[in-house]
Amino acid sequence: MILDSDTLVKAMRCKCPRCGEGDLYVPGVSMTLREKCSSCGLDFSKNDSADGPAVFLIFILGFLLVPLALVVDSVFSPPLWVHAVLWSVVALGMTLGALRPLKSYIIALQYKHRPGDWE
Fold first, then answer.
1. Residue 62 to residue 9: CA distance in whole angstroms
2. Under a CB-based contact definition with an 8 Å cutoff, are residues 78 and 69 in contact?
3. Helix/strand/coil for 15
4. What is the C-alpha to C-alpha distance for residues 86 and 30, in angstroms, rounded to an integer?
5. Per-residue pLDDT tens for 39-94?
6. Vertex 100, ends 97 and 106: CA angle to 5°?
7. How far apart are alpha carbons 21 and 4 in whole angstroms?
8. Which residues form the domain of 93?
9. How many whole angstroms separate alpha carbon 54 and alpha carbon 102?
10. Which pLDDT tens digit goes with each residue over 97-115?
11. 1 touches 95 (CB < 8 A)
12. What is the DSSP string of 18-84?
């Protein structure tokens, strides 16, 4: 099952997929993973999420933002510069807010479905 609530909660909190306690990322706003979990010692260096989270996020944001832009245009008819500013800010904010949890979720799914690769 892909939408396992325990896996999803750990991912949204950006915690270790094994114990749910240790942080996945180094402190700050960086996307850099820690070497290992500070709580259970799970080695994160074997993780390879590559560009998967970014690709999924592009599709998700496109699915959400394009219809919103069309609705805003048909209801309010703002000038083109308003669209450019508004949707750039919204897309950037949603990207920054969702990329870490989405990457954490892909890491958690890799751990759940391929646990032998982590040992």
1. 25
2. no
3. strand
4. 25
5. 999 998 878 788 899 999 999 999 999 999 999 999 999 999 999 999 999 999 99
6. 130
7. 17
8. 5-118
9. 8
10. 999 999 999 999 888 888 7
11. no
12. TTS-SBSB-SSS--PBPSB-TTT--B-TT---TTHHHHHHHHHHHHHHHHHHHHHHHHH---HHHHH
Which structure tokens are listed for 46?
């074997």
Contact 100, 10 (CB under 8 A): no
Which residue has tokens 């998967």? 52
Number of structural domains in the chain: 1
Confidence of residue 38 (pLDDT cuts 50, 70, 90): very high
Structure-block tokens of residue 35: 């070497």
End-to-end CA distance of the chain: 22
